[in-house]
Amino acid sequence: MTREKIRDLVAQMTLEEKAGMCSGADFWQLKGVERLGIPSVMVTDGPHGLRKQAEAADHLGINESEKAVCFPAGCATASSFDRDVLRKLGETIGQECQAMGVSTILGPAINIKRSPLCGRNFEYYSEDPFVASELAAAMIQGVQSRNVGTSVKHFLANNQEKRRMTSSSDVDERTLREIYLAAFEGAVKKGKPWTVMNSYNRINGDYVGESKKYLTDILREEWGFDGYVMSDWGAVNDRVEGLKAGLDLEMPSSGGMNDALIIEAVKDGTLDESVVDTACERIIDIIFRYSENRDKTAKLDLEQDHETAASIEEECIVLLKNEEDILPLSGEKKVAFIGKYAEAPRYQGGGSSHINSWKVESALEAVKGIAEVTYAKGYDDAEDRSDESLVAEAVKTAEEADVAVIFAGLPDSFESEGYDRKHLNMPECQNRLIEKIAEVQENVVVVLHNGSPVLMPWKDKVKGIIEAYLGGQAVGRAVTDILYGRKNPSGRLPETFPARLGDTPCYLTYGKGGDHAVYQEGVFVGYRYYTSVGREVLFPFGYGLSYTRFTYSDLKLDREQMTDQDTLTVTVKVKNTGARKGKEVVQLYVSPAAGETIRPAVELRGFDKIALEPGEEKEVSFTLDQRAFAYWNEEIHDWYVDSGEYQVMIGKNAREMVLSAPVQVQGTKVIPTVYTLNTCLGPLLRDPKAQAVMGSFMGGMAQNTDAVEMQKQQEKQAEDPSAAVSSEMMAAMMEDMPLRQLLSFVPGVTREMLQQLVDALNAQ
Ligand code: BGC
């Protein structure tokens, strides 16, 4: 529907109808206006499948929803590092929405994994904003290609579950821009979501849902967002202030309470009616984008979508260890599957994303067509206590086999929406089981089902480790296909697995500080921190193995020098030098120019996933622009590139760079210098702009005989090898000496003279 027609509809609405349009009819429906032909439409969770509730609605996944397909959660799909996979996921979910009459799916959820402790990390994508934004954009495009909306969430800086409804994320401007906003920026600019969901929390004291800065100035004016903003469920503090700031739709219904406040505010003149009109126009526009494009032929094909769920998970699984090529398993080996998750996998997380899966395919079921395996349950995670008879049975089963594959991970209660984790440990009963089995069986493979990093005290005692994450209802098939080599693993970790909780960059503040979450680690989130301080980790960001090998060569940059207005084309050749076909995630990192600015050692600026047959070689190309070299400068409130030599690197992961080439980048933006009495002599004497003024000042000083005499004395002293201060030392001391200090050290210099100098410097 054209904007003009929409405006015309809004003009015909009463104030009551317009205020009503700005909040839900109930838990999941928006209000329509029947007399004007505006339909009421439904929105549904999200993000990795449909949680369509017919009755007894709730936002914590408590009541049952209609049977649907549970696709791999965000933790898994992000591991694919594959835009096509996310697009396919989006298309499939979009199709399901059309079939089930859902206008908008509440996702993707892309908050940055600031700490591995966040209870909701299983839904989120990455610790890296580039990965999160690129994959979210692909998912959004996929869903919306079916004329169904997305709601990218939870905007903004909602990185913990603890006190998520009241907590203030206290973050500096640069960190917000480079890390937390950046994840949404790319998703919004590239993906063009129909809606954005604002988070519950506050930022630096103010509710996001009342922040014009984030909801309007940045989201709409800077990034060009043209849909509507909806609140997270109940994330409304002051409805009228929210509306003014750009929060268009309140969800769910407030039972008419907030509609009445809107009407009152318009009547008493504290809210301009045009603000309500604009919100209605945005909401109606999106309602019609869906309702005018209903696909009447769309059918829910649960069987087919289960297959899609399996094929997506196969692209996501990460092979973490494969000593002595224990994997893939040969069909001839006697294999024991051990652990409850082989029979009943943990494949999704708890809370609003919980899907009522129509079926679940376990590894034990999926392996039937491939090989015969023995099975022992080993543990029951309902209680974290070893059951000695289960352990004994499992040890015996493992001992009798050639290989033991142990299915382990995190139980539901260990990670969920609504609260954070307290530690990174797996249940003790599972760790103990692995240790016990490793005592009797030298060929052990561990398959992990978890939504966020865990510690692996048994890592050195097992030969193989597979990270399946929360892989959706078809996870058993995907895992089995990887175990038996029907598929070659190609996932990479979109987050760091730390060696200890205490090593995590926000360890000291995360979950502490009452209603204030202090982001003291700044931009040093995840690998940005570990690589900068050289901290050993369990598995680095970007890590993952394959059943084949890839060799890199011919890293080429199309120029050696550039300004920040140019683009740089980077090419690299990748060859499959192993015996199987496989996929490699080519990762491009940039290391900053040396200088005063505190910056992470490396930052991911490009990635691409490519498929290669054995012996095949492909050239991969990346284009880097200003943003690949820039940081957010708080003095100019803009992206800024320091001039200098940057390294463009190709890495197997954030810790292992395989090729590197330098490029000289010239920054073109100018940070205006403000000179004060505290400006230091070193930078001042090197500052070309200051040279003329400084020259005449120094000349003036030279006429001061006392000063000249003193300088001579100092120079003489400095040349004397036995002197306490050499000329080098003198220069080093001068470097950081403020102008003000000349008052104490140079006879004859007065405060007035220095002030005149500063004024002259600033006047140029
Ligand atoms: C969650 C959202 C979800 C909404 C509706 C909230 O508690 O934070 O992600 O979309 O409920 O279920």
Could you outline the blueprint of secondary structure elements for this entry?
Elements: H1 3-12, H2 15-21, E1 43-45, H3 74-79, H4 83-100, E2 104-106, H5 129-144, E3 149-155, E4 168-170, H6 173-191, E5 195-198, E6 202-203, E7 206-207, H7 212-222, E8 228-231, H8 239-245, H9 257-267, H10 273-291, H11 302-314, E9 318-322, E10 335-338, H12 363-366, E11 373-376, H13 388-399, E12 403-409, H14 428-440, E13 444-449, E14 464-467, H15 475-483, E15 497-498, E16 516-518, H16 527-533, E17 537-539, E18 550-557, E19 561-563, E20 568-576, E21 582-591, E22 603-612, E23 617-624, H17 626-629, E24 631-633, E25 638-640, E26 644-653, E27 656-666, H18 681-686, H19 691-702, H20 705-719, H21 727-735, H22 742-745, H23 751-763
Helix pairs in contact: 1-10, 2-9, 2-10, 4-5, 4-11, 5-6, 11-15, 13-14
